[in-house]
Amino acid sequence: MTILNRKISVEYLFRLLFHILFWGVWVVWPIINAYLNDTERDRWYLGHIAPLSITHVPQFFINTLILMPFFLRKRGVGSYVFSVIILSFAFVIIQYLLKLGLWDNPVDMSGHRIKLFEMKTMFPILFVSAISTVYGLILYMADQEKLKREEKQEKLQAELSFLRSQISPHFIFNVLNSIVYLIRTKSSAAEPVTIQLSELMRYMLYEADDVQVSLDKEINYLNNYIELQRVRFEEDVEINMKVEGNIGSQIIEPMLLIPFVENAFKHGVGMIDTPIIDVLVRCDGNNLFYEVKNKIAPELAEDKDNSSGIGLKNVKRRLELLYAEKHKLEIKKEDNWFIVSLFLQLKTIGL
After folding, report:
1. Range(s) of the domain holding residue 30
2. Neighbouring residues of 336: CB distance < 8 A, sequence distance ≥ 6
3. DSSP 8-state class, residue 298
């Protein structure tokens, strides 16, 4: 929830509404009502009872801010219950002393002389103790839940960082192999490919550390990698890449698409007479369909497990962590083709 461009948490809203309602009903409204009615009984209330009601405020906050953190959370229920009894007893004495000091005639409206321990005095004090304890427990449980979420998020970020750190060296190794090949064959493409590699490295170093990047940057990165492989393999490998749909303001986890293409080059080149790699990216609104196909040798189709590489294992885990209910990954072999299909529901920048 946002108020005046400031994000208001549910916990803050609960605190605010609770204090407005509780103190409004328990303290403020009786005083306003007595002032407006202005009867003899109401005037007696304003002079004798209203000052006593104010003491419930420090009682409430002493319990929630001091007793609960120090005794309940650190020393256990027994110590806390004992401390609340002492606190309640202390405020019974405080209210008794206030009556003696504020009242000219220490008798109540019925003409009875005031006593130290009276049910009509003790009940409000015990009620405030109970309400403040429930309030404190609700906030404590909310804090614990928040800590669990933060710990889970930290573990998630740590695991994602680890997975990304595995992907980067794996990718660099493949690209460097391409450049080494070009240098050995004294290809004139070695220099522009090296420059292109620097662009890819810039993306990996400065963009891939972001939580998410724009889809067009990720596709551009994928396209640069494929172009680099075109230079390496020249006419030996048929490489097709097609991008369909409107690539606009969608955002995606960085370095998510490249492992599928890396896997295709790893297992689809070198053991086949006519290697073919097809890459399709289709975007319909925030729905992304991504498919990578590579031909495999018939004799290896049943034995080779193309889905067991570190790249695909990592991307599977990242999908589970970041797109748990928003993706569908299919990996299959069909008519001497190895096919990876990914259906992904993306978000839009700013949402």
Report:
1. 2-148
2. 295, 296, 297, 298, 301
3. G
